[in-house]
Amino acid sequence: MQKINKNVVLALLSLTSLVFLLFQLYYYKFYLSQKNGAVFSKVRGSQSGQDSTRWHVVNKFLGLISSHNIPVYLIDPLILGLVDKDIEQIRSSPDGPSPECKYFCAPRDFTTFALLDKTWKHEVGLFRTAEKMGFQWLKIINKDPRLDGMDDLSGIEIPLHYIFKLASHAIHLVVFYERSGNYLWHGPLRLKQHMDKKFVPFRKLHFGRYPGAYEKPELQLVSIDDLKVHIPKNPSSFLEEVSQSRFLECRYREARAFFQLYPDDASLDAVEFRKKAKSLLHKAVLTLNNLGVKFWLSSGTCLGWYRQCNVIPHSKDVDLGVFIRDYKSDIIPAFQKAGLSLKHRFGKVEDSLELSFQGEDGVKLDIFFFYEEDDHIWNGGTQAKSGKKFKTLRMTRKVFTNTRERWRQQNVNSAFAKLRKLIPTHPPDKKLSKNETLRLAMRYINFLVKVLGEPGLQQTAVAAHGSILGFFQQAPCLQSMEELTLMENCGVSSPDMSSNIAECWSETSSP
Q1: In whole angstroms, what is the distance from residue 434 CA to residue 62 CA?
Q2: Are 225 and 105 in contact (CB under 8 A)?
Q3: What is the mean pLDDT of the chain?
Q4: What is the pTM of this model?
Q5: Residue range 85-95: average pLDDT?
């Protein structure tokens, strides 16, 4: 038999290994990379190939939406925060290549864009093209809340979010809807049960946790890292809105139920007052927004919105709330310039301030200023006729906390009381502290576990046919409950003592 040349065998094994390795590289490059995301080359100014992944994914996404004439704009808060610092430089920079990739090359899991719903409808073609380009996509739909009060339309679902994923990066496309109040609204991101919850890190998405409302932004086209993108013309103003954009939908179903019990006032006077009140409210919103003063619906106006999704017709005024820390001396001149004359001014800035303005159509606007204390928030008021002053507690923080703490303490005390009844003591009415109760309960449980672990327990349980008396008669370690007792003279320790209460248990043997 001829001897096998070891060198030949080694060469064959090496060649086979090399061929297998080349096949794996080929398979990954031409199959897996297209399915799970491409491996991108390094771009100008980036520090590593990994950093360039985000830039390439954004670039491919912009090419995708451009091929379908879909107008999107960048709303990613982190990128806009960086852009806002360099906004003048970005606006004035030429369209030539950037010396470095500063904004889209930072490693991130996702980038966020916005889309106005009415600007496109042919999503099927978009998805097909996206798949050809290697994107995986996810569409999130939910019920249209504007139709929630209509039984025949309340089930209609609308697209709220799209997610396009390529390689290790995802594009979050938020769908904005234009509403009758001349603002943009987006819905929350709620996954259906069949959806892959690991598709992207959903909890990190900025515009998915709550619905939001925004003013219509004016857009501008800029070049960022050699990519042409639209952004809000005033990024700082948009970023400020992001922090305050959470939107609370009116309770349409509850409002309809309310009107079934209390029919709505549809008289000519009521309709005319609501029209004037909404016009006045719109004017007040514009005035306070221009001043940068944060505000909210208050008193009767807030009640009308919450209870019946409308202005209460018999209230005859509009009420707003403002924190006193946001008060500006320009408020009165600004409202007067808007055509609202000052009717009353009650209180002082440091105590119980209230402003009342008269609209041109006779409807009154009241602005209540709220004061923050350590444990509560309050606002003051003054009766116009009598001049009598009063303060109203609007919200308590510490009171709520104390109530919750008392409720928790009551539950704990109740649980300890029930536990004391289950622990054998001598004398039976001996009072135990919480510390003693816990220690004795642990000792008692350990003893019962020891009893249940005896070898003859299974036979005893079968012979007794469920009789607990038979169990005690057969158990060798529990012939009498007198064998396990709390010794009266053991000197039970108080909660602040370090002695071990478990030593007060005594196990006596039978004679």
Answers
A1: 66
A2: yes
A3: 79
A4: 0.64
A5: 83
Average of pLDDT values for 276-286? 92
CA distance 57 to 68: 17
Tokens matching residue 505:
């248990």
Q: Which residue, among 81, 71, 247, 55, has the nearest Cα to 175 in the 3D structure?
A: 71
Residues composing the chain:
511
DSSP string covering 68-91: TT--EEE--HHHHHHHHHTHHHHH
Q: Rounded CA gap, 80 and 422, in Å?
A: 63
Question: Which tokens in the block code for residue 330?
Answer: 């320009």
Q: Which pLDDT tens digit goes with each residue over 426-464?
A: 777 777 888 888 888 888 888 888 888 766 544 444 443
Helix, strand, or coil here: 167? coil
**Measured CA distances, 292 to 234, 285, 332, 358, 370 (Å):** 14, 10, 14, 22, 17
pLDDT value at residue 404: 61
Contacts of residues 500-503 at CB distance under 8 Å and 24 or more positions apart, as own/partner, are: 500/439, 501/435, 501/436, 501/439, 501/440, 501/443, 502/439, 502/440, 502/442, 502/443
Q: Which domains does the chain have, with CATH numbers?
A: 52-242 (3.30.460), 252-396 (3.30.460), 423-507 (no CATH)
Chain centroid to CA 301: 27
Virtual torsion, Cα 211, 213, 218, 223, nearest 10 deg = -20
Helices (runs of H) and strands (runs of E) counted in the chain? 15, 18
Mean pLDDT over 388-415 rounds to 68
Question: In the structure encoding, which two tokens stand for residue 421, read together?
Answer: 């009844």
Distance CA 13, CA 6 (A): 11
Pairing of strands 389-396, 484-486: unpaired
